[in-house]
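Minutes, project check-in

Agenda point 3 was the complex the collaborators sent over. CS summarized: two entities, 472 residues total, and the question is how they sit relative to each other. Sequences were read into the notes so everyone works from the same version.
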Amino acid sequence: MNYQWNWSIFLQPTAVGDTTYLGWMFAGLQMTLMLSLCAWVLALLLGAVVGVLRTVPNKVLSGLATAYVELFRNIPLLVQLFIWYFVMPELVPQSLGDAYKQSHPVLQQFLAAMVCLALFTSARVAEQVRSGINSLPKGQKNAGLALGFTLPQVYRHVLLPMAFRLIMPPLTSEFLNIFKNSAVCSTIGLLELAAQGRQLVDYTAQPYESFIAVTIAYVAINVVVMTLMKKLEDKVRVPGYMGGK
Amino acid sequence: MVYEFDWSSIPGALPILWDGMAVSLEITLIAIVVGIVWGTLLAMMRLSSIKPLSLFAAGYVNLFRAVPLVMVLLWFFLIVPRFIADLFGLPPNTDLRLASAMIGFALFESAYYSEIIRAGIQSVPKGQMAACQALGMTYGQAMRLVILPQAFRNMVPLLLTQAIILFQDTSLVYVSALADFFGSAYKVGDRDGRLVELLLFAGLVYFVLCFAASMLVKHLQKKYQPA
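CS then shared the predicted structure for the full assembly.
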């Protein structure tokens, strides 16, 4: 094999000249982190609401929530992304669609990617929230009601605080997934980590170095998130439950 | 003005889309078979008492689970074929990229299968292995005749659910220019300027297939739930 390794490629200025190739990598990393974190916050909020709705006694509401979850779980992420990016701007009222199309291309890509990742992940979060609520003994809800709480109060003060503590481990894995899923957004041209890696291959003809760097970056994200979440999990663990002290 | 739908390009494109679906299903099937066979081996290595084997399996599974599928496909589409061509001095026009992308996909999914199978093996009580050994069975016999058959029966719903996820994942081979169902739909939409209709159609087809399959899994789960 006669491949010329050249790790110093990262310190060279890019062909466009604005920064070094390492600068491109960091820009990609920043985009991946920002996109994933924004989408995760939205996904948690939406997922909590939909998850709660799946467990309420009202048949219409729980039916709607079930439909929401099934819709987002049974269409591949890539297809959803393309629908948000290419289809939605055509279907919304024209003034809104035009405003979207006239905005900065990076903003367009970011918005489509964020909404797509957020809704896709929210369906999964909702399933975890539902299973968390359902795993609580029935007596907790009844005790809350017997104490004179209204149903929303029971959810707010009794069921949700417990449920969220119980579902920390599966939520961690969803949190890890959102970083990995964000790589799909390179397909609409968003310059996140994976896309920057690919761009580096085109510009530098040093494919091994750039791909190894990107792979290490993803592994590093994974390790950091897992370490932080482990700390959080230990902190909020419920004594007496599985994995509790 | 409201968007005016024009679905007329879909009927003519059905043969192309069908071919694409055949590719998607083929990749799914190959990846499921490879995933279960290689995943079982990985799970057994991971649980084995031979340190190098269990370290290798743990490293393999953790690496593949930490990296996005898109990255894995790009590795196997862009980098691995070049590496192999360099290594064996193949003529530069040999195109290994598609085969390589498929292998990458299968290797990636194996990591996820191996975790399911490992949990399945661990769900069989330990005493069974001890009983097998007391009866004079070798490790291989115990696994093949006693442990794995029970483990797989417990795992069926999870394995099927993973198969549905895997089928959805196949749409990502789009990055490797394989003409699967989604790739074909995108190409037709792009060609006819009817991307909106074709993408919605693709979404609908995936939804119907995956939803039906997940209902079937739920039904099977109820029917065969161990008492």
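Noted in discussion: The mean pLDDT of chain A is 91.
Follow-up: revisit at the next meeting once the mutant set is ready.
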